[in-house]
Amino acid sequence: MTDSSSSPGQRQAPEFDSSVPQTARIWNYWLGGKDNFPADRQVGDQILEAFPAIVENARASRAFLARAVRS
Q1: What is the rounded distance in angstroms from the CA atom of residue 51 to the CA atom of residue 10?
Q2: Which of 53, 44, 11, 45 shows the shortest CA–CA distance to 25?
Q3: pLDDT one-digit tens code per residue, 42-65
């Protein structure tokens, strides 16, 4: 029996590690979304301590994007 994962031309999907924070999920956390993990929330809170206006800025940025796309 051969291992099909080592066949030429086939790619394996990258492994997903929810313990590694990711910027899009951190923004999701600041925007009140549900698609984030504890590592994202932890880093998001650390950034919030250093830059208290980040949540307000993230929401204003999202609102601008919605207005710009609607136009």
Answers
A1: 44
A2: 44
A3: 999 999 999 999 999 999 999 999
Exposed/middle/buried for 39, CB within 10 Å: 0-12, 13-18, 19+? middle
Distance CA 18, CA 3 (A): 27
Q: Rounded to 5 degrees, what are φ and ψ at 31?
A: -85, 0
pTM for this one?
Answer: 0.76
Q: Torsion-angle region of residue 10: left (phi > 0), alpha (psi -120 to 50) or beta?
A: beta
Q: Tell me which residue has tokens 């710009």.
A: 68
Please report, for the chain, the start and end positions of each structural domain, with discontinuous segments joined by +: 19-70
Mention every residue, 6+ apart, whose C-beta is less than 8 A from residue 39: 18, 19, 20, 21
